[in-house]
Design brief:
This protein is mostly helical. The protein is built from 12 helices and no strands. It has 3 domains: about 100 residues, Alpha Horseshoe (Leucine-rich Repeat Variant), CATH 1.25.10.10; about 70 residues, no CATH class; about 90 residues, Leucine-rich Repeat Variant. Helix 8 packs parallel to helix 9.
């Protein structure tokens, strides 16, 4: 019985494009035990799904294939082999194999992969490494790796990423950093970052953003800042900011409902 959905692939071939030869296979005995099947579960097939099914049926054999010349075999075997065999894959020449190993390596052994040349491997490492060991990845050359680091780094170390060159990374920092450090990000060049800063600031800190060039930031200030500072925004150039400021000051804020309908979709909060 062939695998549903894969009939269009034609006769099974190995990773070099040759027809799969069960007769000459060293695992021929498994065929009689129904622990492998050409076109469905075969370690010599070029398709990872069929290789995966072979190891799913025969997990004890995974350790025998960690040096196989086909990278897909090594990568799939890494999913099933016991963890004591995984360290030998850390230096594998193919990033898919190293990525597969990184999924299961004990956290401390992941440290050897923090400088891996491939971003996908480092992303996986940053996702699994103990947060207290992430300091060495703060300056990673890839923005997404740093974003993952910023999401998991202990709060006490986030100050080292406040000036990251990427706005998305800084936004993540702004969403997690301690309150005392938020003023240090109030002048960030990116409006989205400042919006996040404004959202998290306490009312007593929001006066630092009174003159922000972005109306969304000033709207947050007008909505929550201490009233003494809100007075400055009663004549703001933006209608919605003016309206919420006057409303809080007891001036009515005529037309607020209409303005909210028009501009609420622009608010990031």
């Amino acid at each position: 019985m062939s695998e549903p959905g894969l009939n269009e692939l034609g006769p099974p071939v190995d990773w070099q494009g040759c027809a799969v030869d069960c007769a000459g296979c060293s695992r021929h005995g498994l065929l009689e035990q129904e622990r492998c099947r050409p076109g469905l579960a075969c370690v010599h097939d070029r398709y990872a799904k069929r290789i995966d099914r072979f190891f799913f049926w025969n997990p004890a054999l995974a350790g025998d294939y960690l040096t196989h010349p086909y990278f897909e075999v090594r990568a799939v075997a890494a999913k099933y082999v016991d963890v004591f065999h995984l360290p030998q894959l850390i230096l594998d020449p193919d990033e898919t194999v190293r990525w597969s190993a990184a999924l299961r390596l004990p956290p401390k052994q992941l440290l050897t992969l923090v400088c891996d040349p491939h971003r996908e491997v480092r992303i996986r490492v940053a996702s699994r490494l103990d947060p207290h060991d992430l300091g060495g990845m703060i300056g990673d050359p890839d923005y997404y790796v740093r974003q993952v680091v910023a999401r998991r780094l202990p709060e006490t170390l986030l100050t080292k990423m406040m000036r990251d060159v990427d706005a998305e990374v800084r936004h993540m920092v702004a969403s997690r950093i301690g309150d005392a450090w938020l003023p240090g990000m109030a002048k960030d060049a990116d409006a989205g970052v400042r919006c996040e800063v404004a959202r998290r600031m306490k009312p007593g800190q929001l006066h630092l953003l009174l003159d922000d060039p972005d109306w969304r930031v000033r709207h947050e200030v007008a909505s929550r800042a201490e009233l003494d500072h809100v007075k400055r925004l009663a004549n703001d150039e933006d209608e919605l900011v003016r309206g919420i400021a006057r409303q809080r000051l007891g001036g009515g804020g005529a037309g607020i409902s209409r303005l909210v309908t028009q501009k609420q979709a622009c608010l990031p909060f």
